[in-house]
Specification:
By secondary structure, the chain is α/β, with parallel strands linked by helices. It has 17 helices and five strands. β3 (about 110-115), α5 and β4 form a beta-alpha-beta unit.
């Protein structure tokens, strides 16, 4: 594994490679970017470069240190995440990691602590890691990974060198999925709906994509009717399943993003247009009619529901119902969805 093997992140990886080559690696990094775009892979590659026996800017990938780090079994590289029985990273995990950093390396010349996702730390844990960041130890490095930098304490952010990771190109996501054995056409669809996130694209592959799309169309088309009964019946299909509800809302967000893109009048990306091409007959009325209405308002409603579920643990059924009621506040868009649904 070399830094150049990390796809579509040339700026980020060039920054890391230059730091390793110069021998002036900051004691703490903050990798910022969407989920599933290579932050974790970059952290692993950086750890390999800092421990590799060849001591070169790019790790060799074959020495004992590189292989152990690749397998996540190296004693001098530790990953801290959310425990299986918790929703956040507790202070005890950070305190234990701090004690571990204070011990001399067992095998390599460096010790690397990776916190993923850093925004999942409790306030107490964030304050604990702040103390570690303020008192760096020679030969020890901390890498924080996050998709929500604003959720971290400003004092934590200010003590790290920030490296930004961008969404992957849709062609890249599709190619990776195909390499993993996905059907090329399904891979294109998943890539178009992924927002540049391989993690999200993989999630779409794991769900019955067509079935979820039908729920999205039914839900939003029914929202324009005089009464909300049909829309609420569509929501009942999810049966309060949190993961399926999140997947449905994210899919609705992706579909609305594609519609908003089409409304702009710009030519659709080659792969991004796969969604519009497959569902052209059903989506065309919405694209044409709702240009006069607020597609952006729908997007905001779905985002609010996803945020409420993530931050406030909102009941999935209530989140979906909130989207329905928000859609009913924009009848023109709802009516277009109704026609698309063919009801």
């Amino acid at each position: 594994m070399r830094f150049s093997d990390i796809r579509d992140q040339e700026h980020a990886t060039a920054t890391l490679r230059r730091s390793v080559a110069s021998g002036k690696v900051p004691h703490a990094y903050l990798f910022v970017g969407p989920e599933g775009v290579g932050k974790r892979l970059a952290a692993r590659t950086l750890a390999m470069a800092l421990c590799c026996e060849r001591n070169e800017p790019d790790p060799c990938g074959v020495c004992t240190h590189c292989r152990k780090i690749s397998d996540e079994v190296h004693p001098d590289v530790r990953w801290v995440g959310v425990p299986d029985d918790k929703r956040r990273i507790p202070i005890d995990a950070v305190r234990e990691a701090d004690r571990w950093l204070g011990i001399r390396p067992h095998e390599a010349r460096s010790k690397i602590l990776v916190v993923d996702p850093a925004d999942a730390m409790t306030d107490a844990a964030a304050n604990a890691i702040l103390k570690t960041l303020e008192e760096p130890r020679a030969g020890s490095f901390i890498v924080l990974l996050t998709a929500a930098a604003s959720a971290l304490l400003p004092t934590v952010r200010s003590r790290c060198q920030i490296v930004r990771f961008r969404p992957l190109a849709e062609k890249t996501v599709a190619a990776i999925l195909v390499q993993g054995g996905a059907d090329p056409e399904i891979a294109k669809m998943a890539a178009a709906l992924s927002g540049g996130s391989l993690a999200r694209a993989t999630q779409h592959l794991g769900e019955e994509l067509d079935a979820l799309l039908e729920i999205v169309v039914e839900l939003l088309s029914a929202a324009g009717e005089k009464t909300p009964e049909r829309a609420l019946r569509a929501a009942e299909v999810l049966r309060g399943d949190r993961e399926k509800t999140v997947a449905t809302l994210e899919l609705a967000l992706a579909v609305l993003d594609e519609i908003l893109y089409a409304q702009s009048g710009a030519p659709a990306p080659e792969i991004g247009s796969a969604l519009l091409a497959k569902y052209a007959g059903r989506l065309a009325p919405l694209i044409e009619e709702s240009a006069r209405h607020s597609t952006a308002g729908h997007i905001a409603a779905v985002n609010r529901a996803l945020t409420a579920m993530a931050r406030n643990n909102m009941n999935p059924q209530l989140a979906i119902e909130g989207v329905v009621m928000a859609a009913r506040g924009r009848r023109g868009l709802g009516e277009s969805w109704h026609r698309i649904g063919g009801r």
